[in-house]
């Protein structure tokens, strides 16, 4: 009966072998053939192919030439030297390369879709490769997802491995340290993606607001946005406005009728610092609340009680 930790180490080796084949397919077949056709000017610009595959070549080289051979060596010597922790420690810093690939993934999938519609030869070449046995009836996009899922897989396998190690195992210290390193890399890659998404979304919002100098700040965080009715007590009526709530300010905007560049005109900004918000019980205008800040006080009406509560919260 094999010890549990050896079974997990073998599973790591077997999944790594399968993974290297998948990387080979992505880098040496899809990427190489699409690049060759692009250079012949037959499908799409060369830059597009490079953008789709990001740094897959470095990832493939690293796993095929370094990590897999090291793991194989370890498993062959397992009986005399039962350890993999040290090899994984060497692997961990290189996994930061994945940050670039993972960050680029959504853009890559979008490029495949867009250029498949624009260029029939491009679409046909991908379809041709996908028909080959090596593709196992899966699409290019499906294969491209594999590197995105690989780091979480290492993390799970290694966690399992550490749990199953006997307390006196010579690999315990190394394996625990390796797990910590992989955990940090996974966190690093997730944080990089989250931060990139936040900045992209923020930039889109700034464009909708016409890129006003005093508003564009990369450290701002958009908390909520949406249409709202402004109540005018003078003539007892409401008018459609739009709110953007950031961590530091509330922008009270008027939708533009003619949308050239910006969608909204910023009418007013109220600092969140010192702002007070309260619900109003107005029989004529239900779901109303009052926002009072240093700059102005606004009486606003939401479309429903739920929406009002969401804004107040």
- Poorly predicted regions are none
CATH class of the largest domain: Mainly Alpha
* Structural class by secondary-structure content: alpha+beta
CATH architecture of the largest domain: Up-down Bundle
Number of domains: 2
Helix content: 55-70%
CATH superfamily of the largest domain: Dbl homology (DH) domain
Can you give a write-up of this model?
The chain has 313 residues and is α+β, with helices and mostly antiparallel strands. The chain folds into two domains: 4-207, Dbl Homology Domain, Chain A; 222-312, Pleckstrin-homology domain (PH domain)/Phosphotyrosine-binding domain (PTB) (PH-domain like), CATH 2.30.29. It is 56% helix and 16% strand. It contains nine helices and seven strands; from the N terminus they run H-H-H-H-H-H-H-H-E-E-E-E-E-E-E-H. It has helices spanning 4-39, 46-53, 56-76, 85-91, 98-118, 120-131, 140-164, 172-208, 305-312, and strands spanning 222-232, 237-246, 249-255, 264-271, 276-280, 288-292, 297-301. The protein has a seven-stranded antiparallel beta sheet with strand order 4-3-2-1-7-6-5, with helices on one face. A hairpin with a 2-residue loop joins strand 2 (237-246) and strand 3 (249-255). The radius of gyration is 28 Å and the shape is elongated. The termini are far apart. It comes from Upupa epops. Residues 221-313 form the PH domain. One of its GO terms (molecular function) is zinc ion binding.
């Amino acid at each position: 009966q094999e010890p549990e930790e050896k079974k997990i180490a073998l599973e790591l080796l077997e999944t790594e072998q399968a993974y290297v084949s998948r990387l080979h397919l992505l880098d040496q077949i899809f990427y190489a053939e699409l690049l060759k056709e692009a250079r012949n000017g037959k499908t799409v610009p060369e830059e597009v192919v490079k953008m789709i595959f990001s740094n897959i070549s470095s990832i493939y080289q690293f796993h095929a030439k370094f990590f897999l051979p090291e793991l194989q060596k370890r498993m062959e010597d397992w009986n005399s030297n039962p350890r993999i922790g040290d090899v994984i420690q060497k692997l961990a810093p290189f996994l930061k390369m994945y940050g670039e690939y993972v960050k680029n993934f959504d853009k890559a999938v979008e490029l495949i879709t867009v250029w498949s519609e624009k260029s029939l030869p491009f679409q046909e070449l991908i379809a041709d490769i996908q028909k080959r046995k090596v593709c196992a009836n899966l699409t290019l996009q499906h294969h491209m997802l594999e590197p995105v899922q690989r780091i979480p897989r290492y993390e799970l396998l290694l966690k399992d491995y550490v749990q199953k190690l006997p307390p006196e195992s010579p690999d315990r210290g190394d394996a625990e340290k390796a797990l910590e390193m992989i955990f940090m890399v996974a966190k690093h890659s997730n944080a990089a993606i989250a931060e990139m998404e936040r900045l992209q979304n923020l930039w889109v919002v700034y464009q909708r607001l016409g890129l006003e100098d005093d508003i564009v700040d990369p450290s701002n965080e958009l908390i909520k946005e949406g249409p709202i009715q402004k109540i005018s007590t003078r003539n007892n009526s409401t008018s459609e406005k739009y709110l953007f709530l950031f961590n530091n300010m509330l922008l009270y905007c008027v939708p533009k009728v003619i949308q050239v560049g910006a969608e909204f005109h910023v009418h007013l900004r109220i600092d969140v610092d010192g702002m007070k918000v309260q619900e109003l019980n107005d029989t004529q205008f239900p779901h109303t609340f009052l926002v009072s800040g240093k700059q102005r006080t606004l009486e606003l009406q939401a479309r429903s009680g739920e929406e009002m509560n969401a804004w107040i919260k």
